[in-house]
Design brief:
By secondary structure, chain A is of the alpha/beta class. Helix content of chain A is about 40%, strand content about 25%. Chain A has one domain: Rossmann fold, CATH 3.40.50. Chain B starts with a helix and ends with a helix. Classes of the chains: A alpha/beta, B mainly alpha. Chain B: Keywords: Membrane, Transmembrane, Transmembrane helix, Transport.
């Protein structure tokens, strides 16, 4: 087996006395899609911050040499009238050789019209903004994309097409994806590996193997919505 | 010497208005207010030791800013809280120790008696502030719209916030002379708040804010000459008029 692009060992994150991530181990191979699932407050976004090196942690987060990380946050706390155009926002990335053409290419690659470059970042729809965030990350030519799925803002069809887009981009640019998802259907469809996180590692492996009803019970503490999803999934295939 | 006043007023106003753009993006509009209060004990000390009040204000502001920066990372409190709690006390302290006849000037400012030295000092420091701010403005703006994205693009927040707070301290120390401690927050915020109502892009935001600051400074100084009053308060009123016009623009045109 080749060297993993990311190897996490004994990762523990604590805010004061509260342990948010407890002794987590996992690894991911180049080109894979790893989905991180778990209930609210399970430490998913905290895990991303630790992977980015933004917060202090114990244990090791070992990225392969020369890895460039692109990060797509769940949302941005900006006002709708923030005076910042989409073009300017992309320029803030200060990526090497940035130009109007590069910006047009970037929005075209996430299937947005180039006219959107002149719109205000705060005035575009939530779905469009998420595509812009992906374009922003692509400008850094990432070898790994960290994608934090928005919880409630986007309708299901919009979310499905975001994943189709990600899938397409992954084929094109061949990056590794780590995504936080709240939708098990998405996990089944797009992820090679799934990490169930609820402070500790509850399960890890290919979704079809590790996402048993017992594991879901353990992970979510008997949240019925997920059985429903699983049932649907069973009928479809 | 009105030319001197105009040079001092305009350069300080442009520097402060640019700072305001980022204060508004970061939603820390009141930091300028509270920081200006910190300057008062510095002015008091400077008067006591008979040194330039700008130097006294700047020294104590830089100390305060280092304190804020340190506390923010140590205590996880927001900048607004730290500034609000610790530094309004400085106003009280300053008010107690500044001699009464100097107090009005420290609180409301006065540039009717600028020396050549003041002109050179203001221009050099304002230019320095403007150049550094423009050099880091992309990183600052990114940090302010999303810290995580900024971090993933290699922006290190500690250094950046330190630079920003230092520039803020410098801006406040410069502006105290012009509008005084009570109105300093307004010098930073009003032109930027008006510009935000009109601008659609960051570039427009920065250009308009500087322009509104400069126009307010010029009208403040001329009108003060005519009415024989201090230019600081008139500057703020001129800025407020621009703000009200921009609000009309926002309601009628921008939406």
């Amino acid at each position: 087996m080749e060297n993993p692009i990311l190897k996490v060992s004994n990762l523990t994150v604590a805010f004061g006395k509260e342990i948010v991530i407890d002794n987590l181990d996992f690894e991911i191979q180049k080109g894979d899609v790893l989905a991180v699932i778990g209930p609210n407050g399970a430490g998913k976004t905290t895990l991303f911050k630790a992977l980015l090196g933004m917060i202090p942690y114990r244990g090791t987060v070992a990225w392969a040499a020369g890895v460039r990380i692109g990060y797509v946050p769940q949302r941005m706390e900006i006002e709708t009238d923030v005076p910042l155009t989409v073009y300017e926002f992309l320029a803030l990335r200060q990526s090497a050789g940035f130009s109007r053409e590069k910006a047009e290419e970037a929005v075209a690659s996430v299937l947005l019209p180039k006219e959107i470059l002149n719109s205000g970042l705060g005035s575009v729809s939530v779905g469009q903004r998420q595509r812009i965030l992906i374009a922003w990350a692509l400008l850094g030519k990432p070898s790994v994309l960290l994608f934090d799925e928005p919880t409630a803002d986007i309708d299901i069809r919009g979310q499905e097409s975001i994943y189709q887009l990600l899938h397409h981009l992954q084929d094109k640019y061949n990056f590794t994806v780590i995504l936080i998802s709240h939708d098990l259907n998405i996990v089944y469809k797009y992820a090679e590996q799934v990490l169930c996180l609820n402070r500790q590692k509850i399960c890890f492996g290919p979704p079809a193997e590790v996402l048993s009803p017992e594991q879901m019970q353990h992970l979510y503490g008997g949240e019925h919505a997920f059985y429903h999803h699983l049932g649907q999934h069973g009928h479809q295939h | 010497m009105i030319t001197g006043q105009l040079i001092v007023g305009v350069s300080i106003a442009v520097a402060a208005s640019l700072l305001g753009v980022f204060a508004i993006l970061k939603r820390m509009s009141l930091v300028g207010d509270a920081l200006s209060h910190v300057a008062l004990p510095g002015i008091a000390l400077a008067l006591f030791f008979k040194i330039n009040p700008f130097v006294g204000a700047l020294a104590i502001l830089l100390l305060a800013v280092i304190g804020i920066w340190f506390l923010e990372y140590r205590s996880q409190l927001s900048v607004d809280t730290i500034v609000g709690v610790f530094f309004t006390a400085s106003l009280a302290l300053g008010a107690l120790f500044i001699p009464e006849f100097e107090l009005l000037e420290a609180l409301f400012g006065d540039i009717s008696q600028v020396s050549n030295f003041d002109v050179i000092l203001s221009v050099i420091f304002s230019l320095f502030l403007i150049i550094v701010l423009i050099a880091v403005h992309k990183k600052l703006a990114l940090h302010m719209v999303s810290q995580e994205m900024a971090y993933s693009a290699g922006v290190r927040p500690k250094t950046l916030e330190f630079i920003y707070l230092m520039l803020f301290a410098l801006g406040v120390a410069l502006g105290i002379r012009f509008v005084g401690a009570l109105l300093m927050g307004a010098l930073i915020i009003i032109p930027a708040a008006a510009a935000k109502n009109v601008a659609k892009s960051l570039q427009g935001f920065m250009v308009l804010s500087s322009l509104f600051g400069a126009v307010s400074a010029v009208s403040g100084i001329y009108l003060a000459q005519i009415f024989h009053s201090a230019p600081g308060p008139i500057f703020i009123l001129a800025g407020s008029v621009i703000f009200i016009i921009s609000l009309g623009w926002r309601i009628l045109v921008k939406r």
